[in-house]
UniProtKB/TrEMBL annotation, chains A, B:
PANTHER family reported for this sequence: NICOTINAMIDE-NUCLEOTIDE AMIDOHYDROLASE PNCC, NMN AMIDOHYDROLASE-LIKE PROTEIN YFAY
Lineage: Bacteria, Pseudomonadati, Pseudomonadota, Alphaproteobacteria, Hyphomicrobiales
CDD domains for the chain: cinA
Domain MoaB/Mog: 8-170
Organism: Kumtagia ephedrae
Protein known as: Competence/damage-inducible protein A
Amino acid sequence: MTDTVSAAMLVIGDEILSGRTKDRNIGHLADIMTAIGIDLKEVRIVADDEGDIADAVNALRGHYTYLFTTGGIGPTHDDITADSVAKAFGVPCEHDAAALALLGAHYARREMEFTEARRRMARMPRGAVHIDNPISVAPGFRIGNVHVMAGVPAIFQAMLDNVLPTLKTGQKLLSATVHCPFGEGVIGGPLGGIQKAHPNTIIGSYPKYRDGSFWTELVVRSRSAEALEAARAAVEAMVQSLTPAA
Amino acid sequence: MTDTVSAAMLVIGDEILSGRTKDRNIGHLADIMTAIGIDLKEVRIVADDEGDIADAVNALRGHYTYLFTTGGIGPTHDDITADSVAKAFGVPCEHDAAALALLGAHYARREMEFTEARRRMARMPRGAVHIDNPISVAPGFRIGNVHVMAGVPAIFQAMLDNVLPTLKTGQKLLSATVHCPFGEGVIGGPLGGIQKAHPNTIIGSYPKYRDGSFWTELVVRSRSAEALEAARAAVEAMVQSLTPAA
């Protein structure tokens, strides 16, 4: 599988860790990465702390093809993502001329003052390139393999849509789901045997619990359609063999 | 703030990273930790990979007062959390006699076979102590400062309820919210000044976007009720000063 493209995500913000805000971006990024054939391998959530953010950026950007961050790029004192990413790359964080022009024109059109706080949103690490923000103008940015985006879900999603066409994508991981009316204790043994017999697949077992009883969703994944179908058929046959005849 | 108690969370499972399952445990743990005065400082989500899990366990357990994990403790081949945590601690992972007895009795009562897969759920690192599971019997476990719990939300929540009375808790972080009808660009400057003037508080600004316009939730947090009220009053006065008279 030499054409695997990997990604990590860094969610930045005290409000997620305190529970005040429930993250909605992880699930969205996970869905999109799966859809385009990039393996999301790790997610971290860290507080609004420059050292913590920079350490996480450096740990993740070196390890995966892409890193996507959300949060901390607004105009207030607790928005320190641009500074932290600059620190991680060892470059200065400075007002970007193009971003200043973009934001200046935006506020002039709306007859709003271009405050110092708003000017903060034009700061980015030297060498960064913009990620367009069709909703509220203030751009995200990319530096190296790190894509820095907003935390507000509507803006994050719009920025991510602009990033997607620039990404190298891998061969898509195909998947097939087999519904299993039994709990994992029933199928765990035979399922392990099927996994061993089908090494080019990843077989996942997801326990579900409802109204006092367990059932299981069995998901087979593979980059090969043939391997996928062979393993799926084996899983289905196993489930059938355990089902009492009607 | 010498009485700060910190925590990290490790969410284990391919299904979260692929987007198939949307995590519901992070928000729950965050809410509970905030309620009892423990600072949740970091969350990581990793795949079902023994090395990745062990590395994350070791990185996090050394850094924070407590580590809580969810996922990967069921009976199937992809449930490798117990092995990975044992590896992190450098101890063997073995069938625990008490857990075997508990599970054996449970399946005997229900006249169900105690399969090899089900016996897997009794495996834990040597020296671990049980975390009771009132829903489906198979225990979670604690070793050192690491609490290993189920990923199914109902079971995770029940296990966590059993863990809470055993935790050392910190002085609760108090909070007060001020609604602000303006976007961050308007209040960013003065808010930064208030933060500087109230160093014993953490002032967060959370942008909200709805129907084409921005508003902001301003949240002041502090372990001191007096410091909290002083900063809250300053934030409210600032918002009032920007609001046009009726």
